[in-house]
Amino acid sequence: MDTVWxxxxxxxxxxxxLAGVRPGExxxxxxxxxxxxxxxxxxxQRLHFILASMRRFAEELRVEGFAVDYRxxxxxxxxxxxxxxxxxxxxxxxxxxxxxxxxxxxxxxxVDVIANDQFLCSAETFGTWAGGRANLKMEDFxxxxxxxxxxxxxxxxxxxxxxxxDAENREPPPKDGRSWPSPIVDPLxxxxxxxxxxxxxxxxxxxxxxxxxxxxxxxxxxxxxxxQFIDEVLPHFGPHEDAVLSSEWKLAxxxxxxxxxxxxxxxxxxxxxxxxxxxxxxxxxxxxxxxxRQIIGWREYVWGLYWLWMPEYRELNALxxxxxxxxxxxxxxxxxxxxxxxxxxxxxxxxxxxIERLMIxxxxxxxxxxxxxxxxxxxxxxxxxxxxxxxLPNVIGMALYADGGRMSxxxxxxxxxxxxxxxxxxxxxRYDPKKRIGEHACPFTTLYWDFLARNEPALRSNHRxxxxxxxxxxxxxxxxxxxxxxEVRTRLADGSL
Length: 497
Prior knowledge:
- The chain is mostly helical.
- It contains 20 helices and 7 strands.
- It has helices at residues 34-37, 44-64, 76-87, 100-108, 123-130, 138-149, 190-202, 219-233, 257-262, 267-279, 285-309, 337-349, 354-368, 372-382, 388-399, 416-422, 443-454, 456-459, 466-474, 478-494; strands at residues 2-5, 26-33, 68-73, 92-95, 112-114, 153-154, 157-158.
- Strand 6 (153-154) and strand 7 (157-158) form a beta hairpin.
- Helix 10 (267-279) packs antiparallel against helix 11 and helix 11 (285-309) crosses helix 15.
- The longest helix is centred in the middle third of the chain and has 25 residues, at 285-309.
- It is globular.
């Protein structure tokens, strides 16, 4: 009998190597790698989400009638070898993995690899779109996707006459005391109890709060969360999608990315649900467009860039950043209110929304000069939706400008003023976002000006930074700012800030 090998981020019956296969036609192989589970500081909920989802999917296949060989092994390779030794399959087929190293492994093992169909734009199609373009821009890709997929289109023009509603979707935190819909939380069962015990035994360095049912580990649970988002949350998504509130951790974000990333949801059904709700008049255009852009635009753009630029891309460090992660990222205390709040949210739920990731965590890492590989690995292991293909472009290109501008036209660096505008953290914080120097100067503000000065040779040719660099050169206290920045960077590393 042939074997279909299902990896941990391919948990879907109707896609990949399992699509069209009936029970009795092939045996299913799934492998939990002890080496991977025990490899460093993973968030407990991230591990739980993957392991419980894999085990439940295996059980669903057994109920359907499949013979499932579910193995615990030192590595994926070892599990594959043991399966072959026991069952001697005639042919082993797998869907192309979502990682460069995973694809190379399957090729080395002579597994028959079929195309990955968990995206609306394949890596090959993206490569064709990108070929011959002098500059790659997400906005150009997004518009091409809209036209190609006929989403929010009126003939060959965008519905409403506008391609995106960014200008309407950047409002600061609301001050009306509104309540946000509560997320679905599922009760834990015997499978969850076994996974919790396994993580305690197999991942001694794991951190963060234990799994509590917030994250679905079945397709049924993922679909329930999709329906709730479309019906109750998406209508409020647009205007405040960039806002940060100390009293509300999720606001109107979908929290669907984990399910998309492992196959419990497909981007097609997510986009169709949002598109249908808009056509029915239940969602304003700004919210519908802003959310759909995240799925068919940004998410698929990141996927395409990963395969276009790997494997060299993960080694890039254009600004020669060499600092360690701030201690506050890995359990240390900090008096920076925005950082403390965001890191606690990650500890509690393995999740933070995109502005907290980019403009708080990424911004601090960028301006303080954190080594790109250190931030990639931490985010990959800390976030419920972490994956190499997600984190490499978002960290190397978007957050840290480590690719020298191949992905972003300018570094996403800012001082405390942006955080003060878009959040409510600064009011009670020890640090003043308006101050550059002194004990109470906001570290973001100090580091912003130091970042520009420290990297001026590499940034001076960037036309989008002309005004900022000009303002930096005019600072009469620049020497004092840079001296304070040395202290800030030291204290970020030793945990005393």
